[in-house]
Amino acid sequence: MSYRLPPLNALRAFESAARHLSFRKAAEELHVTPAAISHQMKILEDQLGVQLFRRLTRAIELTEVGRSFLPKLREGFERFAEAVEKVRSFENTGVLIVSVTPSFAIKWLIPRLYRFVTAHPDIDVRISANMRLIDSRRRDTRNKLDGENELANDADIDIRFGSGKYPRCRVDKLFQVSLTPLCSPRLLEGMRPLKKPQDLRYHSLLHDDTLEVSEGRPDWAMWLKAAGAEEVDTNRGTHFNHSILCNEAAIDGLGVVLGTREIAAHDLAMGRLVAPFDLSLQMELAYYVVSPEATADRPKVALFREWLLAETKHPLVIGQPQPETETAKKN
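Above: the chain sequence. Below: its structure as tokens.
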């Protein structure tokens, strides 16, 4: 449907002049000259074929037609304002798609996420777990992330583990990661307690085979060499193709995993895992917050990015605080 409407500037000028009953005050409000307002009124009256104002010596007044025109026009501008505000608010609210690796989502993001959704209930956060967010040595049709601008599932934000080189994207470093042996606290006791690195020869080594696709990531051989325990056989133990499986096996006491302290922070805080040794090996890769340059400054995207970066500086709080009951408030 096409609308045959007068120029918007003329309509705005009429609404302001009618509200103030003054061309001068309308000019001040719209930052133009009184002559410009008078000119716009002439254009509007000529197009409508009616007289909207009576020009008196030192004042103006609305004609009957002008008085009947004003309420509907004002209602129209209010609708315009509502529509514009709705569009603006959509940038602050609505759906926010966050694509993350499964291990990061389960072990780092989800234990903290309640703080964001509580503070921003109008933002519908949708988490999409995706292993393709790990930079890989492999180059095939399924994995093109290494150095390329390919965001997963049209996500607003990707949390990637890799080099930080993602063209045409805004990239913020979330945190570097380090690797150290992690195990169930049960392994610190018993017939063969884990006291020093050499004691690892009495325990099963758990192998995270995603090590093979991540550049710059130390393995068991590298850690044992740094710890002076090269006599420990690194060929022993169970292999897993996902870090989550490896961590859960360690929690269940199956053996010792070479894991990341940062991702395991929740399990360490809950006492499900312990780090028996002080030695950690720094990785070349890190976790990054990545979003397309074109949308990186949208309010909801910026809010989530700033929250993520702030979370790295705060200690993990275990458990979501419960609302006060009426009884508790009275006490």
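The first strand starts at residue 53 and ends at 55.
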